[in-house]
Design goal:
Number of helices: 30
Number of strands: 12
Radius of gyration: 31 Å
Strand order of the largest sheet: 1-9-8-5
Largest sheet: 4 strands, mixed
């Protein structure tokens, strides 16, 4: 015992070993209502209380807890009144529920990894015994790749369905195809024999609402009819979206990325990745995008893909029974989501690594790449846009950029950083107001008001009336000779063009008109996106951010193009831009601006550049993208350290320990641990002197998620740590399985029990649920080391000792509160809401 206690006096980085009995996981192994405190307690490992009214958990059961298979009842041997010397060790066989986690708890990463190693070791050993066991071993190793294949297929199929449906419903606001109502505007006119190249969007088969209602498309009244129908359809789509979310799946709102980051860090939110959330998110995402609100589908597609991954995990025991392994799958699913959102498989893998994943081993990197590849291939097979591309705004540039253009590219980066910092501050302020005022009680009214304002302001301007993806596609476009867009309305003062490239030309009336409309569009997008992101509907931020940057970039690009044309004698131009050459590409500026604004909001760098590179297919534009992305991040970081997703994590009080930030304060473990000086003593269990009634009393009077076990209250020598949930399930099973277990039965956490007098009640041996090697630090351990342990190992709690004697406990929430306090923030804000 002394050697063990001395071991705990030092910083313990060792991994824990666990009994195989703890790998059986079930929630149906215990009855509700046995202990009111267990039923009502929602505290996580950080002793944090969650009010029952904080959220609607009516759909919580749509993803069942792990391992629903309840094993057959086992008969446990134990002494009755006449067999008092025999200890009942009812955990010799797995008990359903032991080793699982409550909702709003954080998983024990080390325990989960240890259990997976035990499982893998057992399968490997058995594979040498028989052919069937060898086949089982091979299938177990292959199951991860099969799961990635299924995730890629399902994610790509759903993305294609969402793209096609959203495109059709967006056009439905303006008219309908009489040749087949299921055709969108573009597909409707494809097969028409009455379409000219200049007016290829006009055909007799496509009728606006004014043509259907009043049989004409000319005049003020026809304009009013179309205006009214546009607003009416937008309100209908928005109302259906928010109503479905509110009634059937409250977790389907928002982009989902802040919650997915929190889940991947080990937090459990049951139902967030469930089948109901998947169904409602898929339907309402189409409705929300079609309503014309300033939001995108790219972020929510990550949530959709993770729902697919979580649901498919239930088909494989290896992932259904292990929360850490499941989070590896969810990391790969996030990569597949970005892959189908942008048609960027490599960018999706890097996004998962850089932005959302907490634990990303090399094996997950390979599987993420495979899942992203399959998802992109599936979407390409569906071809939702009819252009053989995975996204609507794919573009290719052919004109090289010049070194001088790095100056406007960096200016776009500065603009992106300023916009990102401004958006985060204002959006978080508005979301906080929504949470703390009566506004948050009326989500349907809020969505309808914002939709009405957006639709009324959007219809008169063709650039706000079109979908945001189409707007980005038009802004990225490199004008050709046959383009009929107003952005390409240049004066043609040339006879031939060399090499098929158009020279820089003076802007025509259409370009100047488009510039004014784009400036108004920019103002509307900047303002309305602040109020849209965070409403109770599926809403992504990638597309609105890219649209803001693309508009700013196109405006700057056209300005640079006209400067180069009219002032070719200037020193900055005459050395590289000759008369009649194609020097400036405004579409490239739009692309760089889009990357800058997206980087300013999300603080992505590497993955952002790769995504944009995969969108354009041009290697030579990586340097401008890198320059803009890094400048944007530097500027935004100077004005605020958090990206939009981290800011929403902090706003919602999720227990997320950011791994990117350094802890630089000189505090010690004794400054953070509980109990503090003058606080009540730490609640502990003794290893061999407490009865069932004593333990039940402690459970009913506290909400702690676990208890240290000591030799005695006098010595306070640490033996181990036992989880509250495991205690409750074990005691309840003992009462069911064994006659004679009463409130006066002694509970033992020791290997052997001393002889007992005759005719005493049978005792319970619970050593198998005891963690014999909990992580411990001494009271003088610097907090920077403690924080590093929590980050690197994903701990739930850490015990504090002094010369082997237990002093206190540090939980993950204590660490988060201490970090907030050191940053002069409100430590009580670390509360899940």
């Amino acid at each position: 015992m002394n050697s063990q206690n001395n071991r705990y006096a030092h910083l313990n980085y060792g991994y824990r070993t666990h009994s195989k009995a703890r790998s059986a996981m079930d929630n149906r192994g215990f009855q509700q209502g046995s202990f009111s405190s267990f039923q009502n307690s929602s505290s996580d490992e950080d002793l944090m209380d969650i009010p029952a009214t904080a959220m609607d958990f009516s759909m919580r059961d749509d993803v069942p807890p792990l391992d629903r298979e309840v094993g057959e009842d086992k008969s446990y041997n134990g002494g009755g009144i006449g067999y008092s010397n025999r200890i009942m060790d009812f955990l010799e066989e797995p008990i359903p529920g032991v080793g699982t986690y409550d909702d709003f708890n954080t998983i024990d990463w080390v325990r989960e990894k240890s259990r997976d190693r035990d499982r893998h070791r057992e399968i490997t050993n058995k594979s040498k015994e028989s052919t069937w066991a060898l086949i089982h071993s091979v299938s177990d190793a292959f199951s991860g790749w099969l799961l990635m294949l299924l995730i890629g297929l399902l994610s790509g199929s759903l993305a294609g369905l969402i793209d096609i449906s959203a495109h059709w419903m967006t056009d439905l606001k303006e008219g309908i195809c009489t040749g087949g109502f299921w055709f969108n505007h573009e597909h409707c006119c494809w097969n028409s024999d009455h379409v000219t190249f200049e007016e290829r969007d006009k055909c007799p088969e496509w009728n606006s609402w004014s043509q259907l209602i009043i049989s004409t498309d000319e005049g003020a009244f026809a304009y009013i009819v179309n205006y009214f129908m546009y607003v009416l359809w937008a309100l209908l789509f928005a109302f259906l979206a928010v109503s479905l979310v509110k009634v059937f799946a409250p977790y389907a709102c928002g982009s989902g990325i802040p919650e997915i980051k929190t889940i991947l860090s080990g937090f459990i939110i049951r139902g967030y990745l469930g089948k109901w959330t998947l169904v409602i998110k898929t339907i309402t995402l189409v409705l929300a995008v079609s309503s014309g609100l300033s939001l995108g589908k790219e972020g929510p597609l990550v949530h959709v893909a993770c729902c697919c991954g979580n649901i498919l995990c239930h088909c494989f025991n290896k992932y259904r029974k292990n929360e850490a392994k499941r989070r590896e799958v969810l990391s790969a699913a996030a990569a597949a989501g970005v892959s189908v959102a942008f048609g960027a498989p490599i960018g999706g893998v890097l996004f998962s690594l850089e932005e959302v994943s907490y634990y990303f081993p090399l094996k997950t990197l390979w599987r993420s790449f495979f899942a992203a590849l399959v998802a992109a291939f599936t979407l390409r097979s569906i071809n939702p846009f009819g252009n053989s591309r995975l996204v609507l705004f794919y573009v290719e540039f052919h004109t090289p950029w010049h070194l001088f253009e790095l100056v406007p590219f960096i200016l776009l980066g500065i603009f992106g950083g300023l916009w990102g910092a401004l958006f985060i501050r204002t959006n978080i302020a508005w979301c906080r107001k929504r949470k703390t005022t009566q506004l948050g009680k009326y989500p349907v009214i809020e969505v309808l008001v914002v939709t009405a304002i957006t639709a009324i302001l959007a219809f008169p301007n063709e650039y706000t009336r079109m979908s945001t993806s189409e707007l980005i596609s038009e802004l990225f476009n490199d004008c050709g000779l046959l383009d009929s867009s107003k952005l390409c309305d240049y004066e043609n003062r040339f006879n031939t063009s060399k090499g098929g490239e158009l020279p820089d030309r003076p802007a025509g009336v259409g370009v100047y008109s488009a510039m004014w409309q784009l400036a108004l569009t920019l103002i509307l997008k900047i303002v309305i996106t602040i109020f849209t992101f965070g409403m109770k509907i599926p809403s992504g931020l990638f597309i609105p951010s890219m649209a803001v940057g693309a508009i700013a970039g196109r405006l700057l690009g056209v300005g640079m193009e006209q400067l180069a044309y009219y002032h070719q004698e200037w020193t900055v131009f005459n050395s590289w831009c000759s008369q009649g050459a194609d020097c400036i590409t405004p579409g490239l500026y739009a692309m760089v601006g889009a990357a800058a604004c997206l980087g300013g909001v999300t603080r992505m760098t590497v993955s952002l550049v790769v995504i944009m590179f995969e969108l354009t297919g041009g290697l030579e534009y990586i340097v401008p993208l890198m320059a803009a992305a890094m400048t944007s991040k530097w500027v935004a970081d100077a004005l605020g350290r958090e990206g939009i997703y981290d800011a929403h994590i902090r706003l919602n009080g999720y227990p997320f320990l950011e791994a990117k930030e350094e802890f630089a304060h000189k505090t010690l473990a004794m400054d953070v641990m509980k109990p503090r000086r003058n606080d009540p003593l730490l609640t502990v269990l003794t290893q061999d002197s407490m009865t069932v009634e004593d333990v039940e009393t402690i459970i009913s009077e506290t909400t702690y998620s676990g208890f240290p076990v000591v030799v005695s209250r006098e010595s306070q020598r640490l033996v181990g740590f036992v989880l509250r949930r495991d205690l409750i399930i074990s005691i309840e099973n003992a009462r069911k399985k064994q006659d004679g277990v009463v409130s006066t039965s002694i509970i033992y956490f020791t290997e052997h029990s001393p002889p007992l007098p005759p005719y005493t009640p049978p005792t319970l041996k619970l050593r198998n649920i005891l963690d014999l090697s909990p992580f411990t630090v001494t009271d003088l351990t610097p907090m920077e080391i403690v924080v590093d342990i929590f980050r690197k190992l994903g701990l739930r709690q850490c015990l504090v000792t002094h010369n082997g004697r237990l002093l206190g406990i540090i939980t993950k929430k204590d660490v988060l509160k201490h970090i907030a306090q050191m940053a002069n923030q409100d430590p009580d804000s670390i509360l899940f809401n």
